[in-house]
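Re-running the complex after MR caught last week's input typo. The corrected sequence lines follow. Everything else is unchanged.
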Amino acid sequence: MADVKKIATRDSYGAALVELGAEHEDLIVFDADLAGSTKTGMFRKAYPDRHFNCGIAEGNMMAVAAGAAAMGMVAFASSFAMFASGRAFEQVRNSIGYPRLNVKIGATHGGISVGEDGASHQCCEDFALMRSIPGMVVMCPADDVEARAAVKAAYEYDGPVYLRFGRLAIPVFHDENYEFQIGRGEVLHDGDDVAVIATGLMTYEALKAADALKERGVGARVINLCTIKPLDEELVLKAARECGKIVTCEEHSVIGGLGEAVCSLLSEKCPTPVRRIGVNDEFGHSGPASALLEQFGLSAEHIAEVAAEMAAK
Amino acid sequence: MTPDEKKQLQLTAVHIREGVLTGTHAAKAGHPGGSLSAADLLAYLYFKELRVDPKNPEWEDRDRFVLSKGHAAPALYAALALRGFFPEDELTTLRRIGSRLQGHPNMNLIPGVDMSTGSLGQGVSAAAGMALAAKRQGKDLRVYALLGDGETQEGEVWEALMFVRHYKLDNLCVIIDNNGLQIDGKISDVMDPNPIPDKLRAFGFAVTEIDGHDFEQIEAAFARAKATKGVPFAIVMKTVKGKGVSYMENQAGWHGKAPNDEEYEAAMKELRAQLAGLEAQ
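Corrected-run output:
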């Protein structure tokens, strides 16, 4: 899998908005002084009269987007994941979630792969925060193809959606014929010894881990779950029944994210041993993204190690 | 405004106050103080100002009203019921399990409610988003947002006002219910936001200051709002918290407390006397 093309999903987000904007007059975009970074600037360039900078005021931006949605517009609101889900949590909860308004939160710079900006900007709590809001769809695409498909699906879906995108350029492994559906996961690699369930940039790492595990005689089933909520229960339960052991992988705290969503499901419907790979209840720090991912165990090597241990039990 | 129109509005305002008392008394909870201070404004809005249609509450081109001070829901519900959006006898279900009349307004449950509110500071932002969208959609409608004066302590209010000015949302009218009191006491003692009109002017608003219980002044203020182009408009209306019920007037303690049976009877007696006085005019 060497020499694959790499694209940051925030770039995919910007490109998808531009594409959707051409077809849909009712799509408007809000940003909070980060249009260059979130890539909504691409949309601003194409449709300057449909892009509204709110300044550094994320709470106001979310409720403004809610008001626009109440008028029938499809409003995308963007900032870094930290501020979109954290700073503006209560506005998202009360002005978007509770009235179930048609706002799409395009959150970029999720996770520790933000890198050098350090812990204040490395949001590893957004899945937990957004999952806790009734009716909120939570997605974290794994590559460029999936990210563009997820943005399109979010536009078509009637209701609040949280989309997490990354700053770091990551490998593109889906082909253009990929059929995306909200709430539907996919099996990327077959195996019955252990199931590795991943989201976001961890999915490609899980695929690399599966190749390494194969050489060691371990059959790992790799499942990509772009939609963390609602969870593809059928796919997860099938993996639990057929593999008997699960490893979850996310660039997020082990508290409240994909791992806990999987554990909650399995504890009630199919008790199965699970190991959660993620950020272990600690803050990140400054450094190059690749070094941080390595240091925090968000790598193919660590996944392979944990999955092999699980398979051997 | 003809004398008869004025009398009708005054009668309507008293009926809204009756609805506030009836609802909060039945619920044994709720916010009568700030509901009563806003009753006259709501009477004017729903019976004179807003282009709305109770038979078609989802009419796309209607004016929008956002009760940013969502705790004044009892007054909004009374105004909507009197205007025919839902049956008046439903007002006694306020805050009950299974009722559409939630403690704070839910836009998906009650016909005529344009935005779910309750968490202070957010309604004015939503109203700004509505005004922006209306301009974008080429709709010739107006948006009104009613805020409490204590609510201006929320930083988001000022974020929203900056946004309104920046995008020249002259189709939005911001109204501040300046009754001077909040739950914990006088706004000037709790966290002084004064002088509110000066702050609004500094944020680029054209501001008019009125007596919020005087229908002629309310009418003139809305006329000025509509005539003001290119800059946003705010009405700061001096009001009396608990207005119309003597023992509630200017008492912070009646912010979030319901009248007991005796208090309810006393209040309703006062309101009936006000109606009789108006009818006798």
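None of the earlier attempt is carried over here. The longest strand of chain A covers residues 246-253. The mean pLDDT of chain A is 97.
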